[in-house]
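Continuing the series of single-chain predictions for the mutant panel. This is the parent chain; the variants come on the following pages.
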Amino acid sequence: MTGHYIVFESIGNAAVKPFEVAQPKPGEVLLENDYTVISAGTERANLMQLPNTGTAETGFPFLPGYCGAGRVSAVGDGVASLNVGDRVVVNWGGHRSHTIRRADATLRIDDDSIDLFDAAFAPITAFSLLAVRKLRLEIGESVMIAGQGILGVFALQFASLSGAIPVLVADLDPDRRALALKLGATAALSPAAADFVAQVKALTDGKGPNAVVEVTGLAVALQQALEYVAWEGRISLLGCTRVSDVPIDFYKYVHRRGISLIGAHTNTRAKQESSPGHWTEFDDYRTYLKLVAAGKVQTRPMVSEVVSPETAPAVYKRLAEDKNPPLGIVFDWSKVR
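Parent structure:
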């Protein structure tokens, strides 16, 4: 059987290639993707070989994609936890029609009411959940979500569900700000405004937000957050600040004001058991799926395009050239079967 996968071949260039689909070994399962979701920030960074990325360290070719959902199409010997036809979250499987994973590293979707289209976002949402959990939000605390890409939109929804109020967002794109307001943001601001910091403080009784989720990965946005966050506030660093191009006065903005900077990379999460503020990847997947089933989290409003994987070269060309690409792009793998 022939499958297809997407590969970054050089800076700014992606291709779709065929491969022979292998059969799973003992303890493994063969998964067939229905959908995979582009993580624009991470994938663009690797496509453009930015500092502190996989392509910067090991070069090309590079296999992008970590977020999808599909079905089990074959099981290896000794696998009892999954059966052919089971619907699953496909995490860290790449943008490809088929992938082989360990059975014990694959989460089955038990609720038939959950559409695989929504389930495909689970790995991305786990990053946002991690960042919000690390803030240890209490009901009534104010929060700012800096950046309204996919991670930021989910962080907005999770912060609201955690009882934060007001929930502010910041983004340069007016369309993204408008979407944030529809999804429950108290106010949506442009960080380019000359009085941006003053606006943030005015919306938080002059104190600044108690907590910030920094999603942009831009050093200038982190500097702004340090200027507007409340005394002894917390900043969760969800976005990957790959380029340190803005000098920060740590004595003035961190040390003297008692600010907590919290790394929220997925490598910091619990591996085996969840505890307050430290949940495992699978437990965050389960949380997201329950919230989707209950209608408490939305994915569809942030989807800009659902495309065939055959269009990947053009899609990634746009991603390379446009620093503010469409919010949500999903590959529909049924179109290449």
